[in-house]
Amino acid sequence: MAISRDTKQAQVAVLADLLSTSKMTVFAHYDGLTVAEVQKLRRAAREQGITIKVVKNRLVRVAVSQNEALKDADTSGLTGQLLYAVSAEDEVAPAQALATFAKTNANLKLAGAISAEGKLLSVDEVKALATLPSKNELIAQVIATLTSPLNDVMNGLSGNLHALLDGVEAKAV
Fold first, then answer.
1. pTM
2. By the 8 A CB rule, do 86 and 94 touch?
3. Which terminus of the chain faces fewer neighbouring Cβ atoms within 10 Å, N or C?
4. Helix (H, G, I), strand (E, B) or coil at 142
């Protein structure tokens, strides 16, 4: 059943708003997925702050053309039945969410992504993004690296202090 012009314009407005705040938009082919599987994907993605949309590619092209940062983006890869994962908080999260779901559902196949700057990313680039640690894991790794020298100094000083105390205790006995 065809949707009305007003409905299409409303969908384009919602998409344009999502794309304007998006750090990364990943798209994937979902041929063969059941409605229940798509709902399961949406629930899992929502927990990570990701929005999953299933809309016509033509409407996405219109929304991309209305976005100032994305208007020059190459939309030639938007073909077939696609679903779009959008995140305004994390660049890597949409790729990770779809890649994780694709491991258990062979019918979901990554197709590419559009970055916030309007660059079209290939499937291989999206898969590489999906293997990166999350934003919180990267922050934790940087903090651990920064505090490592301090921990080493503290361990060295406490080792000398323990040796001194052991020596004093041995003399006292």
1. 0.73
2. yes
3. N
4. helix
